[in-house]
Design brief:
Length: about 325
Amino acid sequence: MNYSFRKTSLAVTMFVVLISLGCLLPVPNVLSFRGYQDEVIVLAEGTPINVVTAQEVTSKTASPNDNVNFKVDEDLVVNGHVIVTKGTLAKGSVINAEKGGYLGKSGKLGIQVESTDTVAGQPLKLRAAKGKEGNDKTNSTLALSMISPVFLFKKGGEAKITEGTHVTVYVAEEKRYSLEGSKLVEIAAPAAASGDPSAGADAIVYIYRPSKLAGKALEPSVFVDSVELARMDNGRYFTLKLTPGKHIVHMTNEKKGFAIDMGPGQTYYFRVGIEMGMWKGQGKLTLEDSEKAVPEIKKLKFIGEDKIKDHTMVIQLEPSRPK
């Protein structure tokens, strides 16, 4: 009887041990695969991606908004999953181009990387700055580099960006993906937090002309996307709110303007000057940084009502001091 009880006891103990060991074993493949399929792959905003120029660009022949091609220089991988493959085309454009050589004038050239495509076949928006600010305290030359990672001055000649120039850009918005079999599928991102002031916000553009004696009587026109906004008189400023996206800000000559892919909630400052020619002066735009532009605008008056050509676009808004 004792022997039988011990035998039964031993069998029960072994059974319990086997059950315990079973709990420690890996989950069956079917369950593992299901969990893998349910994984959400998050491509964070600000993730760096390396590209190279796929062509040569020179200030001698380039114009604002000309297309510029790039290629992704290495796979973009998140959690072991390839999101963008090496060699994928990345699209960009010329921001600003000014020919050099005339009376020793320096050539100027700026280009921007705008987007590429994921392995899911979806467009992926890119930008030059890692953060959302876009208003870093840089000098006027580098102000453009906050939008474009490639901006060059060439003293006394043409500015040139050669094929194969390496550029690091950043993902402009968070993207989420799931796996369906081996296929990567984009899924809707959660709604933007209500505390994010840039979510869905317009781009703000300040255009100003410091008071100067030279060319004081001239009032060159300022345009956005070929729409005349105002006749820019001396010592005045005005403001625009624009839908995020590509806009061309220019004077009468569109080729001397800036074609910028403007981000939501970002602020841009354009200074109007008078460029004296052989027969008469003409307006010229310069992209400035906030640290220089805001104090200058604070000294100016809002443009006169009689100078405004499009009252639906021009608004009065005082700039905030740079942080």
